[in-house]
Write a structure and sequence with these properties.
With about 210 residues, the protein is of the alpha/beta class. It is about 35% helix and about 20% strand. The protein has two domains: about 150 residues, no CATH class; about 45 residues, no CATH class. The strands form three sheets. A four-stranded mixed beta sheet has the order 1-2-5-4. A three-stranded mixed beta sheet has the order 7-9-8, with no helix packed on it. The chain has a two-stranded antiparallel sheet with strand order 3-6. Strand 1, helix 3 and strand 2 form a beta-alpha-beta unit. The longest helix has about 35 residues.
């Protein structure tokens, strides 16, 4: 019995370290998304019109919304990668729905947190009459956006909302044209790419106040 104790302790320490590493990984990822401005509450344009809807990410198979830190993780992933909705599922769920994840697609890591009561603790509780001790655990798993799959039912492959009419300002358009800049419209991000030397912005109707486009 004594020989098994160190191994058990080592396993507990390894599990604790793994859990801490996962917590740190998730924390670092959320902070990076905040610093990059990829989350929906810091952008002057509406994600509903150029990419994912600003709502709760949900499982496309069960229609249940994700919760906790997974909301932030999936929001950031959707905006960063330009997914047209907030519908995700697992590899096995895609297969169960008659589809499959396309070869080469990169999944998104989320976590599942819960508690359970080991059998040893249940036995101790029966002997002592005290409440059994629960053990917390954190498990990572991988989700794929429905647009990364093929063969899924058509109703799951939702796209973005149609854009409203554009409010052009001729004088501003003339200034843009006069610069001779390589000006590209599309996607859900606004940036200047110094290497290829071009400017990219979301479509003007996506901005809550279209003047912000200019």
């Amino acid at each position: 019995m004594g020989a098994r104790t160190p191994k058990s302790g080592a396993r507990a320490k390894a599990g604790g370290a793994k859990r801490r590493d996962l917590y740190q990984e998730v924390t670092d990822r959320i902070i990076a998304q905040l610093e990059a401005g990829t989350v929906p509450w810091v952008q002057p344009w509406d994600g509903k019109k150029v990419g994912p809807t600003v709502g709760l990410p949900r499982n496309a198979s069960t229609a249940k919304s994700y919760s906790g830190m997974n909301i932030l993780l999936l929001w950031g992933t959707a905006f960063e990668r330009g997914f047209p909705s907030l519908d995700f599922l697992t590899f096995k769920q895609a297969l169960a729905l008659g589809g499959a994840v396309r070869k080469g697609e990169r999944g998104s890591t989320v976590v599942y947190a819960d508690r359970f009561t080991p059998e040893s603790e249940k036995e101790k509780a029966r002997e002592s009459g005290e409440a059994a001790r629960e053990v917390a655990f954190l498990k990572r798993y991988t989700l794929f956006h429905v647009s990364q799959c093929e063969g899924l039912p058509e109703n799951l492959l939702t796209g973005g909302a149609p854009l409203p009419e554009r409010q052009t300002i001729p004088r501003a358009e003339a200034v843009i044209a006069g610069t001779g800049a390589d000006f590209r419209i599309g996607g859900e991000r606004a940036y200047y790419a110094p290497g290829p030397d071009f400017i990219q912005v979301p479509p003007q109707p996506a901005f809550r106040e279209q003047i912000n486009y200019y």
